[in-house]
Amino acid sequence: MYICVFWVKSVRNGKRISSREALRKASRVLRHRYEHLLLVFSCHNPTIVQHNVYEDAVAAGGEFGILEGRSFALIHPIVMSGLFVYTLYAGYLGWQWRRVRTIQNEINELKKEVKPVPVTPEGTPAEPPKPSPVEAKIQQLTEERKELIKGSYKDRHFNAGSILLGFGVFEAIFGGLNTWFRTGKLFPGPHLFAGAGITVLWAAAAALVPAMQKGSETARSLHIALNTLNVILFIWQIPTGIDIVFKVFEFANWP
To answer: Membrane-spanning residues where (predicted)?
Structure first.
């Protein structure tokens, strides 16, 4: 209403103003009247003034204050970027631990190919044995396995997976909450659905650990497959995440 009044007055005075200028003048009038009413009511209820000051200081521009700001909005992409790199690291540790187990199977298979050394009736070798290529390969794999065992990849992979599960699930939920704080709603789309899928895959992969500890090769293969799919989803949603970051810089304010 005030916008129309200012615009009509400007036309009557022969100095037409833009709708933006009319809106600015109307806002000043409304704010002046609001402050006047606030002063009157504060005489009867001082908490009104206290609440208004607190709201201006902490929640300037939004109901949830800093939770709606750019700082909190950028926590999710920063943490998830780190978790993506950490996911690749955890996968490397898991693959090395798998190598510890599979390399022993290779050694056992190669030992079956080693030909027995002929011996004399006295039980001594008929001639000095020459190292065969198979035996050299066995020796190489044995040394490699010793080095892998020294790396403690089993414990490191387990610890990395636990950290990834805990922080990943927490940050996935935090990302949705932050969107709600800033906009009052969620936006169903590729990024949201991919993030939910990644969270489910984290939980499903972790649920296979007891069966893996009992030696189930099916559980181990499924664990690898789920985490591979997890990485693919992670990579696929990076572009949509970058788009959201641009929107945060466009629409959200510091802090």
So the answer is: 74-95, 158-180, 192-212, 224-246
Please indicate, yes or no, if residue 79 is contained in any of the structural domains: yes
Residue 1, in any domain of the structure: no
pTM of the full structure: 0.64
Q: Can you give the pLDDT at residue 123?
A: 61
How many separate domains does the chain show? 1
pLDDT at 199 over 60: yes
Q: Is residue 219 assigned to a domain?
A: yes
* Within a domain: 149: yes
Residue 106 has pLDDT above 60, yes or no: yes
Domain boundaries, position 133 = 66-251
